[in-house]
Amino acid sequence: QVQLTESGGGLVQAGGSLRLSCAASGRTFSAYTMGWFRRAPGKEREFVASISASGGRTYYADPVKGRFTISRDNAKDTVYLVYLQMNNLQPEDTAVYYCGTAPMAFTTDDKMYMYWGSGTQVTVSS
For position 40, what pLDDT does the model report? Predict the structure, then answer.
């Protein structure tokens, strides 16, 4: 059974940091692209960052470049971990953050992501 579970969200003041984690199990996710997306109130889900299966390639949405860092840990063979280090958070980063997995390609297109977690809330106060 595939399971993705995000954690690490919370309330932080502008300029602060949070580290999100996603634990994925149920597939050999070391072969999958992993990504972070977010949905702000009243907005569509948007791409945040992605990391290739090997971890050798990363890609970021322009609004988070230089502030967010995605990484992954494929060391365990049953639970795969993906992280999103978020620094210098701003109120516009407030959203529910989701991790997803894409089996076929290194992509920013959420339609290519097959499995999703239920999300973790990040709230940034000004």
Answer: 97
